[in-house]
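Tokens for chain A. Residues wanted.
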């Protein structure tokens, strides 16, 4: 099995690339899926978040109100770091369980884990390869304001709370630049997937020698 980390800053097109890799044949667990699962109603993760941030981060049905929590943590770096310290170990545990299950099912799989703070946390080191999804900063800002209905200042604050995109690119084995739209992004992703398949075959050949 080949393990692949996929990361990128907010509103760069990670979800699109992740979904296309799934279509191409990769096994994929995406960041949103993992982050929601560890704070589902009744989980220890949600209990820890409520203990730290109060019951006002809950929706009326007892689930996590992600918008309310986002407004709190993006306005206060200490609170954001505290949330990360609660959530990240749970997400890594979930990802590792998922990777083990994929390997049991298919030793020839290309298993892609999409996570936003993989480089910042050092989690990228667990993977054979790292893909960084990138786009031009002006496009990123426009996408974020439109997607999340934010003011330009709010969007800038969320972008500035993350590691700069150019810094992330330094860690990458592969970069997907989504600035030029869907078809160009798909082309780059297909080329990367072909390269990942070659790396998997090379690894298997190395084991057999």
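Reply:
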């Amino acid at each position: 099995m080949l393990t692949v980390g996929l990361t990128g800053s907010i509103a760069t097109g990670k979800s699109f690339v992740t979904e296309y890799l799934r279509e191409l044949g990769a096994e994929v667990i995406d960041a949103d899926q993992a982050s929601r699962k560890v704070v589902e109603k009744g989980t220890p993760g949600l209990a820890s978040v409520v203990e730290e941030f109060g019951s006002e981060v809950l929706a009326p049905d007892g689930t996590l109100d992600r918008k309310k929590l986002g407004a709190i943590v993006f306005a206060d770096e200490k609170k954001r770091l505290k949330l990360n310290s609660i959530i990240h170990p749970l997400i890594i545990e979930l990802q590792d369980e998922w990777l083990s299950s994929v390997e049991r099912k298919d030793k020839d799989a290309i298993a892609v884990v999409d996570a936003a703070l993989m480089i910042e946390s050092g989690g990228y080191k667990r993977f054979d390869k790292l893909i960084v999804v990138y786009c031009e900063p002006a496009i990123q800002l426009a996408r974020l304001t439109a997607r999340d209905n934010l003011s330009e200042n709010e969007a800038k604050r969320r972008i500035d709370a993350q590691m700069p995109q150019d810094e992330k690119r330094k860690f990458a084995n592969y970069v997907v630049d989504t600035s030029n739209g869907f078809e160009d992004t798909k082309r780059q992703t297909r080329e990367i997937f072909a390269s990942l398949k070659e790396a998997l075959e090379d690894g298997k050949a190395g084991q057999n020698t």
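The chain has one domain: 2-208. The radius of gyration is 18 Å.
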